[in-house]
Structure formats: C-alpha cells, structure tokens
Amino acid sequence: MNARSAMNQYKQVGVHSAVMDATPHRLVQMLMEGVLEKVTLAKSNIARKEIAKKGENISKAITIVGGLHASLNKEVGGELSENLSSLYDYMTRRLIIANIRSDERILDEVANLMLEVKAGWDVIPEMLKN
Description:
- The chain is mostly helical.
- It has one domain: Four Helix Bundle (Hemerythrin (Met), subunit A).
- The chain is built from 6 helices and no strands.
- It has helices spanning 3-21, 24-47, 51-70, 74-101, 104-122, 124-129.
- The N and C termini lie far apart (51 Å).
C-alpha cells in the first residue's frame, strides 16, 4: 500500500467518524463545507487546465447542493425553506454554467452565496442558547 492510498483510507475513516458523531445541525454544516471545498478545488482545476477534474469537482458540488436541497423541510421551515430552495436551485444552475464555461467568477459567486447561508446556519446553536 502506498502512502497516498493510506492517507485516503485514513481520511475516509476520519470523515466516517465525523459523520457518525455529528448532530443533524453539524451534518448540514459539513455539507456546506463540502460545497465550498469542491468549488475551491474546481477553481484550482480551472487554473491548471484540469478539465476532467474540474467537471468532477463541480459535479460533486452540485450533488451536495442537491443534498442540502433535499434536506429542507418546507412544512416546518415555511418561507425560509422556500427561499433556500430557490437559492439552491439557482446555485445548481450557476454551477452548471460555471462548468460549461470554466468560469471562476461564477464559482466565486456560488461560494459567496454558500458562505452567507453557512454564516447564518453557524450562529443557530448560539441563538438557541439564549
């Protein structure tokens, strides 16, 4: 077994452990972090002209946004859930265009939108303490 393979296995075990121990709130944070990571990787892929890897990372980001979208509870979340649903749809469309055009600016736009959503999500536990 080479070092890269060992590191990948270690990383998978670490992610699995983090998921198994995570609260539902933390799982959503992890999904948002995953989108940000994949968008960052896709930007690096564009800069290095790694077209196939760019497509893979954007595809993974789209899949994760889809997971966030599927996790919305529109009955409980009401208008906020509807707004997030629309935003996730928009992000997905923008990611598709970013992939087609290899457009880093669109990836930045999606990352900034996700950072805003994540910032709001990150303060929820503190707000619930009060």
